[in-house]
Amino acid sequence: MLKTLFLLYFTLSLLFSYQIIVCLQQIYQSNIELSDKSTIFIPKVSFESPLKTLTVKSLMWCAQQCNLNILCRIFVYDEITFICKLYQNDLLSGNITFVLGSTSQVGRIRYQPQLYLNYNQTCDRCQGNRYLICQNAKCQCPPPTTYWNGQMCQNQLSYG
Asked: Among 58, 59, 85, 83, which Cα is nearest to 72's?
């Protein structure tokens, strides 16, 4: 009887934990596109540095870190050094380039207009939304580096 109760409790705990993980992943869900291996990202303006540089275990962890940072649009992971670089730039403000012998790979979060259907709606519509934040009681583009272009939040970094 005691063993049965323990197994039931353990099973329910696992189910509860799984639901929390799934919910958190759904809140910050992204479409990520990976480039070929041996690629690097080069910002058009050479002095623009990554938002963040960190050491992580895998490409998947690097993608997750980018997904958690609302300003991140591109990430670069080096499979030898385990260095993950997060960039605010997008493909309008930089290029993905093949470099023979490189041990890095570039990923980018795909931004599409349908991700912004709740723009200018009340804040309850963008709660937990990776792409919009609540500001002045409305769903808005994350300041200070994005703006509304009529369809979606666009990066306003200089394009060189």
From this structure: 85
CATH 3.50.4.10 matches 26-109: yes
- Specify the pTM: 0.74
Give 21-77 pLDDT, tens digit per residue.
Answer: 322 344 556 788 999 999 999 988 776 789 999 999 999 999 999 988 888 999 999
CA angle at 123 for the pair 68 and 132, rounded to the nearest 5°: 35
Residue appearing with tokens 């063993």: 3
Task: Locate CATH 3.50.4.10 in the chain.
Answer: 26-109
Q: How far apart are CA 58 and CA 54, in angstroms?
A: 11
